[in-house]
Amino acid sequence: MTLILAVIAIALVFEFINGFHDTANSIATVVATKVLAPRQAIVLAAITNLGGALWGTAVAQTIASGLVDAQVVTTQVLLCALWGAVVWNLITWWFGMPSSSSHALVGGLCGGCLAAAHNDWSVIIWSKPSPQHWWLGGGVLWKVVMPMITSPIAGLIIGFLVMGMLYFLLRNWRPRAVNALFGKAQLFSAASMGFMHGTNDAQKTMGIIALALLAATQVGTFDRLPSWLSFLHTPAPVAGKPLEIAVWIKVLCALTMASGTAVGGWRIIKTLGHKMVKLYPVNGFAAETASAIVIGVATRLGIPVSTTHNISAAIMGVGAAKRFNAIRWSVVERMVWAWILTIPVSGALAYVFVELMRLMGWIK
Questions:
Q1: Domain locations in the chain?
Q2: Cα–Cα distance, 302 to 104 (Å, whole number)
């Protein structure tokens, strides 16, 4: 029981860190364009993150039952997976690099399970048919690797197209009129971005907690609990059906992410909002709109995409629509390296943590 509580606690720590680590995703542009003061932007992000986190469970179900063999998952493995993700998130936050909390969690989960299975790669579900969408496969390949490549590309292209269209429509407008209009419009685009961030990112921790409770239920951990703790009991889903996410898990994760968001992540805000490209309200509106579209579609399909990758790529697309040399490509290069390294490094960290637990006799 102690290990279960530890997993839930670390999962919530991850969710809290995700909140302040990824705050920049939804508010960097609105702060950089000076439409909102930093404190106002954080309040907006916290409220919209909370609302989005309570909306749907498709991504949580993917994390809980679509990436690794649930038979290998134990509370110890989940603990190591979470630690791998948390450590990588803190490293990238310290250096101000907007890496993906989503991919850190996926990497930690895969690395931890691989170590627990003694390097049996079959425990990772690489590909499987999707019962909900016949044209979209499941598993790590189709739900993580392919979207890791395609979603930023989509964000960049949509950002470029939206900004190009706005340049065409507003070509005869005075700059003051454009700034006045989009200073108001950006409030809605930033709110949409914050909401979509909540729908996708908060659900990942919901899936981890549900997976931990399922593992504990299967080994009989909850058999002797008093009746008032019966809500912890999580039975295995019916064959072919996703794991159901309890309402209390949704609320707990949503509140935790909103709290983390309220803390803010100023290092990453500086990178996204100021270092990569100079932004005006119309640019911020275009980037946030493009990113919200991509994340909304991904959430609908149960794909745990990176909010960080999408808003960063959308900002690049918006900058490129103005001119390619408007983007500071040296900053982009550092960000891309952080993206590439996230899954393997967080996976390696989780793998090492599992092996350390094995040395201490906590894992067979």
A1: 2-359
A2: 17
Alpha helices in 54-174 (DSSP H): 58-65, 75-94, 101-116, 139-140, 146-169
Q: Are 155 and 298 in contact (CB under 8 A)?
A: no
333 within 8 A of 310, measured Cβ to Cβ? no
* Integer CA distances (angstroms), 79 to 3, 7, 83, 350, in order: 8, 5, 6, 9
Q: Measured between alpha carbons, how far is residue 248 from residues 54, 206, 306 in Å?
A: 10, 10, 25
Give the tens place of pLDDT for each residue, 174-221: 989 999 999 899 999 989 988 988 888 777 788 889 888 888 888 888
Buried b (16+ CB within 10 A) or exposed e, 118-138: eeeeebbbeeeebeeeeeeeb
Structure tokens at 9: 């606690």
CA end-to-end distance (rounded Å), the chain: 18
The dihedral over CA atoms of 173, 179, 180, 184, expressed in degrees to the nearest 10, equals: 120
CA-CA-CA-CA torsion sign (172, 176, 177, 183) = positive
Apex CA 362: angle with CA 235 and CA 120, to 5°? 70
Q: 42-82: per-residue pLDDT in tens?
A: 788 888 888 888 887 778 777 877 788 878 888 899 999 99
Neighbouring residues of 253: CB distance < 8 A, sequence distance ≥ 6: 12, 15, 53, 202, 203, 205, 206, 209
Give the closest residue to 29 by CA, choosing from 196, 177, 183: 183
